[in-house]
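Researcher: We're teaching a course module on how sequence relates to structure. For the next exercise, students receive a sequence and then see the predicted structure as tokens, so they can try to spot secondary structure elements on their own. Here is the exercise chain.
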Amino acid sequence: MGFCLVSRIETDGNGGVSEIFLELEQVNVWRGEGAEVAALADVTLSLRTGESVAVLGPNGSGKSTLLKLLTGALRPEVRDESCCRLFGEERWSIDDLRHRIGVVMPEEVARFDPEEEAFDVVLSAFRGAYGRTREMRFSRKERVAASRAVDRMGIRDLIGREYGALSSGERRRFLIARALAHDPEVLVLDEPSTALDFAAATELGSTLRELIRSGHTLVLVTHDPGEIPPEIERVVMLREGKVLADGPSRKLLRSDRLSDLYGLPLRARWSRGWCEVRAGG
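Model: And here is the predicted structure for the students to work with:
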């Protein structure tokens, strides 16, 4: 893989310095051996700490593939003209990335034993494990870190309950606490409101806003523009494996842009910093 032209260091909007944690230069990723269609095609993109970003697109647009690149679970096609770097490195350790990038995915909800104590779900982050953790031993330092993550999510009163007895929204909050246990530099949330009712999704939205305000770098992967909180000011639009647009949310979350992204007439309007989208020309 060739030399990457993107600098690892950039300045933020306030003149401060931030690190680029993801650098993609003309990256291709194929859907499988012998595939004729690329999951990601000639993608150039950089993401940096200190800036929260929404990755937006319909199903099949390449969002999941980009997420796997971001978490180190997938590597792109090797070409002289391309590069893929995480925290400035073209080769990385999954264990190291687990400490630097916290990830919450919808399928994680079902990976824990319903009888697991809720606090143990958070502790499991330190072993990269799912399922029962009662036989595992954790250090005092790990327990303190998990407790701190629980406090950040405001769920201390639930830590002694069984995971299966929690509501969908409460489970999602424990999974976010699990992702925060390592105090990662970047927090990635994949379709976070999946399977949540209106009240739980609204509460989750408030939680995401607070995380960004408290200084966390958030990458929100979603198909729903209405899920993007006002604090996220940059949107990357993906369609058919390519970056359709990348820029300020106010400029991209508009009727014409969203209609183009999803291939159907949509109407967008802004209300209190949120983008509301309805079908229709």
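Model: If you want an answer key for the exercise: The longest strand covers residues 17-30. The radius of gyration is 19 Å.
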